[in-house]
Amino acid sequence: MFKKFKGHYAERKTSDRDVISYEDMPLDDYEQEKTDISPDSVKKILIGVCIALAAGLIVFAFANRDNLTWDNISNWWTYDVLGNAGNGYPVNLIGAEVKSGNFAINQGHVAYASDTSFVTLNSTGSEVANVQLRYSKPVMKSSGNRFLTYGIGTTGYQIQDFDGMLYSGEAEGAIYTADITSNGVYGIITEGSGYLSVLYVFNSNNNRIYKYSFSEYYINSITLNSDGSGCVACGITSDNGAVKTGVYVLDFTKEEPVSQYSINGDTIVDSDYLNDNRVVLVGQSSSYIIKRGEENYVTVKYDSKTLANYCFNPDTNSFVLALSKSGDGRSCVIEIYNDNGEKTSSIDTDYGAESISLYKGTVAILDGNTAYGFNSEGTQLYSCDTGTGSKRLILTSDNTAYVLSVNQVRFFDLSKPSTKDTAN
Question: Rounded CA gap, 252 and 233, in Å?
């Protein structure tokens, strides 16, 4: 009535009790378990699955090795796993105004500096830090989980991380510009007695480790390399009525510059390391690539176009320029360059670029209250209404972005068009 199949059976020890049957089948037969797979085979399968999972994790970790720092992992665990969940985005700003440059995203966490406060938000929109600032017109510099805020022309500055205040200090002169690295090293350019500018560099314990005085140029841009062992400083002067830019490559273990360059007829707007051997300088009429150890720099000319916007992407060793053909900031050509100054993509658009962001092979621009995304071949991927008052966009993936508006921080899936100011 009940046919036994070949296999392994676990039989229960018999007892003196009568066997009770169910549907005319002895319970002894129900208690015999069929296991066609041997324990050794099961063990091999489990080992194979574990190896596959481990290999997948190794590949993921390698692909994201720059983001898998202790600070990033700690922040994710503290604020996204254990932290209080917010109500999602949008989130109203604290303060009356946030400048576009005072807005940063790190691992899905938001940081901004308003005219009153330094504020951080987790990925669900919950407020983590709210630090009162000492100046009404702050400038914020950031790298990873370190944020430096200061007031131009004042002596005060503050160091913050995602949790809040770390340090509040006073510079020896009025601050012109500054920069900070993810490991906490920071540099401050100030006016100097007897010099046009002075650079002070501090370690993460706020102890001064380097000083350099500039006698020929007013320094208006500084960028530190990733480990805080050196920097590039750019300054301006007048040469027979024409502007002249000086570029200093500094190693904080050496008294004299490693390299010096001069650029005639242009002013540097901003600069950044694409990697430890390449620095890009964005000027008003051209961009320049400084290569470590080389005497000459590479020039990327704008020709007859006007610089409308730009974005650095050290993750891909590249940068992007939005160049206006019409001179009024519209009809922008989007040009992507590698760290050798070679153009890798050129995209013609009819749009302006009030903000621009580069994520791997995707570039997005903000024209008014609409975001447009393109791949490296120039194909438009999407357009999305980002709500009234939009002023800054930062991609966090090919199609997701945080948007800073005049009164909110918003989050969008740009591939899903939205017409709501408060869309998530």
Answer: 12
